[in-house]
């Protein structure tokens, strides 16, 4: 049985930034960004910020996301799109099978063009009120 090739990995910052202009689907463990890449194939990237935890925690989440994406993208991913997963706190403790179902739902929503409403713009000058 032939296994489909693994999707390419996004490594350049400009591609991550461009994905912010695409479709956004939020789930409890992650946020999926899907953005057309105009003929570069199905690609993926993973972002987990330092707010989530130390390096050990972030790397564990990234490994879980990588496995999810390798499994889901060949069959369910959008062709010629970049897929970015942004980790949330729940990604570490959430059941893997549950995250797989949520990723399938998020990819289905993205295929149908049903993203979440745009986020409100951040206030200039910092993280928030003091």
Automatic annotation (TrEMBL):
EC number in record: 3.1.26.5
Subunit structure: Consists of a catalytic RNA component (M1 or rnpB) and a protein subunit.
Gene source species: Pontixanthobacter rizhaonensis
Biased amino acid composition, Basic residues: 120-130
Superkingdom, taxonomy of origin: Bacteria
Pfam families on file: Ribonuclease_P (PF00825)
Assigned keywords, A-Z: Endonuclease, Hydrolase, Nuclease, RNA-binding, tRNA processing
Swiss-Prot/TrEMBL GO biological process terms: tRNA 5'-leader removal
Chemical reaction(s) catalysed: Endonucleolytic cleavage of RNA, removing 5'-extranucleotides from tRNA precursor
Similarity comment: family membership: Belongs to the RnpA family.
Function: RNaseP catalyzes the removal of the 5'-leader sequence from pre-tRNA to produce the mature 5'-terminus. It can also cleave other RNA substrates such as 4.5S RNA. The protein component plays an auxiliary but essential role in vivo by binding to the 5'-leader sequence and broadening the substrate specificity of the ribozyme.
UniProt lineage: Bacteria, Pseudomonadati, Pseudomonadota, Alphaproteobacteria, Sphingomonadales
GO cellular component annotations of the record: ribonuclease P complex
Biased composition (Basic and acidic residues): 107-119
UniProt cross-references to NCBIfam families, sorted A to Z: rnpA (TIGR00188)
Protein name as it appears in the record: Ribonuclease P protein component
Record bears the keyword Hydrolase: yes
Region (Disordered): 107-130
A GO MF label: tRNA binding
């Amino acid at each position: 049985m032939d296994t489909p090739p693994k999707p390419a990995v996004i490594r350049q910052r400009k591609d991550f930034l461009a994905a912010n202009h695409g479709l956004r689907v939020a789930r409890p463990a992650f946020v999926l960004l899907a953005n057309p890449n105009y003929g570069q194939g199905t690609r993926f990237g993973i972002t987990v910020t330092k707010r989530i935890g130390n390096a050990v925690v972030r790397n564990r989440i990234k490994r879980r996301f990588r496995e999810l994406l390798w499994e889901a993208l060949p069959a369910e991913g959008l062709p010629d799109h970049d897929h970015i997963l942004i980790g949330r706190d729940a990604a570490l403790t959430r059941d893997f099978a549950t995250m797989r179902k949520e990723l399938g739902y998020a990819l289905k929503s993205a295929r149908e063009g049903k993203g979440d409403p745009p986020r409100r713009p951040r206030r200039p000058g910092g993280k928030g009120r003091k």
